[in-house]
Amino acid sequence: MIEDEVLRKIIPTEQDKARIDGTAARLTSLVQDYLDSHHIDAMLKLVGSYSKGTYLSNPDLDLFIMFPRGTSREELVEVGLKIGEDVLHGSRMYAEHPYTSAVFEGVDVDLVPNIHIDSTENLETAVDRTPFHTEYVLSKLTEGQNDQIRLLKKFMKGIKTYGAEPNVRGFSGYLCELLVLKYGTFRGVLEAASEKWREGLQISLEKRTAKLEGALVFYDPVDGKRNVASAVHVDTLSRFILAAKAYLKNPSEVFFFPPEETARPDEWLRDRAENSGFRIVSVSFDKPDVVADNLYSQLWRTHYGLADKLDYFRFNCLRAVHRIVGDRMCIAFIVETDTLSPVYRRMGPPVSVASSKNFTDKWNEASPIKPFVEDGKWWAIVPHQYTDAKTMLLNEVSCAGIGKEMDITTIEVLDHKETLEKADRMLLTELLDPEPFWNKF
After folding, report:
1. Phi/psi of residue 366, nearest 5 degrees
2. How far apart are CA 296 and CA 277, in angstroms?
3. pLDDT tens for residues 134-172?
4. Distances in Å between the alpha carbon of 33 and those of 28, 36, 87, 234?
5. Which end of the chain is more exposed for a tag (fewer CB within 10 A), N or C?
6. pLDDT tens digits, residue range 239-282?
7. What is the pTM of this model?
8. CA dihedral for 95, 97, 102, 107, sign (positive or negative)
9. Beta-bridge mates of residue 317
10. What is the rounded CA–CA span in Å between residue 273 and residue 267?
């Protein structure tokens, strides 16, 4: 069976387990010694996939420093981050909650200060519920389910739906664990997704205490007011459903171990672009100096903002993709056209409306011919503000609602020909070849 073969390749070996167990023990001991020597009242707890036994090879270690209730946020952050810097010489990171990220004995480590609470009804920080996640999963796992979770995680990684970060907008490790608890097995999850899942689906294991909405809603069993799947975008959900259907129809290891991405040859890219009937424009900016999560949030915001501008000014964005290439943030757009005629026909109000005079007054002089009536409405032939997409993007970027960290002075806009000559080949491949990789095998 395919899954048995995959498990033989992804279950950590006894040597792997011994190595990570030793690293986890030494990390915990090192931090505990620091707490003791500095008389810091806090306890330590390893959480995440390592502590649940659901990790793949080379897991991260998430060590929580649990301060007693009553600790101020200022003390929590100041002391908690100083521990990470003094012990691990790590970098301060800021997501919903500040923490320290470092590498210890070759293993990525997150050292996270939080408040030690006895119930998720008493949350004080954004991460206080995380230890309860570990306890819940460990209390519910049945024999063999940890390996079923490994299969689901590896499948998700293979099809690029794994991770709640903004660059993926997908399924977190905890969500994968809950899905296996809900549906029993890896195949059970795939069968449910392929047969029953739709946008807006609501799933729960325990009591729901609030009405939540999202592309996918999975009520957190330790906090019924929280959606564990809040990061899942409808496109990522759809990709998983498609992959689940394809795998069940034709199981293959390629879903778990996809081929390395390669760019299409230049000849293929040029042929597809030149014989398609559409045009391409691309935009790039210097990469801002922000943490990775913020970086991709900025890129998505810029992607959507510029696509909206292309639509607004009638170039009509048909598809867009983005990619970080070296020190540049790159976005490529397929548009219906990159050049417009000097004028277009604009609809006005019905002639019976009092405000119609505003329309005729505006266009009496600005239009090459006077406004006219057709089908009971005023119409005018009016000039396009922009007749080429490149000029529009250069002029409108400052008011396009792009990521606030993007430096618009570093913008470079390439027209159709320039894009085909200069743009990153993987960016163009993704733009022009959207077929899922599993359909090609």
Report:
1. -80, -10
2. 31
3. 999 999 999 999 999 999 999 999 999 999 999 999 999
4. 9, 5, 10, 46
5. N
6. 999 999 999 999 999 999 999 999 999 999 999 999 999 999 99
7. 0.92
8. negative
9. 335
10. 10
